[in-house]
Amino acid sequence: MSESAELHVPVFFVSDSTGITAETLGNALLIRFPGIQFDRRVFPFVETPEIAQEVLHEASTASSAPLILMTVKSPEVAAVFVSDKCAVVDLLGGHLGELERILGVKSSEDAANSHGVGDLERYHSRMRAVEYALEHDDAQSVRMLDLADLIIIAPSRCGKTPTALYLALRHGLRVANYPLTEDDYPALDVPKALAPFTARCFGLTSTAQRLSQVRQERRPGSPYASLQQCRRELRWAENLYRRHRIPSLNSEAKSVEEIAAVMLHTMGLRHS
What we know:
Blueprint: E1 8-15, H1 20-30, E2 37-43, H2 49-60, E3 67-71, H3 75-80, E4 87-90, H4 93-103, H5 120-135, E5 150-154, H6 160-171, E6 175-179, E7 201-205, H7 208-218, H8 227-244, E8 248-250, H9 256-267
Helix pairs in contact: 5-6, 6-9, 7-8
């Protein structure tokens, strides 16, 4: 398949679980083909051959033969997708075989094992982290900041909220996020509520052009979305990060997964 700016390829992420793994692994591969326009759809909880047949029928109605990126454990379900209607990449198959060889143990084909009682505490931990992130979104609450694993600070619309929720849901981390506003600008000080927790802070920036574009979608034509305002806020935020030695990242061209990975590594945070 040659690269072309005009080429459109339907991609189905198919999973017998939530689809997060299929999307994460699949997108990590697709990003290597910038000249192709991928039209993505996610099909989670494909747990039976009957559901798989329904997805395959969807594939037959696509504008062109889709690429299926699959994380399906059941051989019976996976076998349904062996068809001339689509091309299939099994994102787990080769890796599982290699792990079986290395570990000398046959992997389990029982998908239910990955959703059993053993995961219950992990699940509740993540839900508590999500609740924490929602309560502490955009400085709605400053209570219990001492419990935060991480505090994301940035001018409005730099990606604080999706990153906080991703870290909570995927890694079980308690993440607060706090907007840097004009009220904070006169002095290059960390907002008072965050001052005791500066060591837990991580800053985000963007480019003025991108920030203005995002803000225009929210408040078209407003001073808040003007290039001048965006430049001023970003310049102030960057100076604040430097003064207080707060690690930071330009989020403009980064996915949530990439931003989160940098934060985890830089801050030395655990993966759950």
